[in-house]
Amino acid sequence: MSELIWYSIPGAIVIFALYLVSPSICSSQAVVIIASTPVLGYVVHQLYRTIFELFRGWESSRRPVLKMIRDTYNLDSSERNSPFLIWETTLYSDKIPNAFRDHNRASWHYVMSFRSICFASVISGFIIACFPKFWSYQSHPVLIICGFLAIGIIFWLKGKLTYLSLTRQECAAFKKYNEAFKCTRERIAMKLNRKNNT
User: Fold this and answer.
1) How far is CA 190 from CA 2, 58, 122, 183, 196, in A?
2) Distance spanning both ends of the chain, measured CA to CA
3) Are residues 181 and 86 in contact, defined by beta-carbon separation less than 8 angstroms?
4) Distance CA 96, CA 11 (A)
5) Residue 64: what pLDDT?
6) What pLDDT digit, counting tens, does each position of 44-59 carry?
7) How much of the chain is in helix, strand and coil states, percent to nearest 5?
8) What's the whole-number mean pLDDT along residues 24-38?
9) Domains of the chain, residue spans
10) CA 131 to CA 138: how far, in whole Å?
11) Could you report the per-residue pLDDT of 104-120, keeping only the tens digit for each?
12) Cα–Cα distance between 89 and 159 in angstroms, integer?
């Protein structure tokens, strides 16, 4: 139920923009449109995630915990994916408590959800801006676009604050469970050496 609500929010924002540019169509198909809100929200959410992953979001060199791993083990550019591999392998091992893993996963869910709501707000502002007909009968289209952008900024800020808190927790976990991460690093290095020697 929780995910249904989270997916409905970006969908509702986009549908509201569609309603503003075409109220007659939306009114005649109200039941279908309301029922499709979570589906549209899920599509918006997955579109944002696809863009995020295309730009190596999970493996970003700017992600603080990955930067800390790279600096701690002096990994060079040839081991570009190693920090992420070390983090993920250790995170999902039995050396890290389930409570932290679940909290980390839930925090990332919130970050991605806030960002997808922000993304939906930008899409909605774009929809309004691209309909010249709307500009002719609506007296304050710029204010409406600014309203969508304001929603986007609020959720971007919320996502940013959650992300900053999350990254501090990840860095603290890396320091606390340093021995577990070190063991993972050594295992990965051994596998890479064997692979390179064959």
Assistant:
1) 43, 24, 47, 11, 10
2) 51
3) yes
4) 36
5) 96
6) 999 999 999 998 888 8
7) 85, 0, 15
8) 75
9) 2-197
10) 11
11) 999 999 999 999 999 99
12) 26
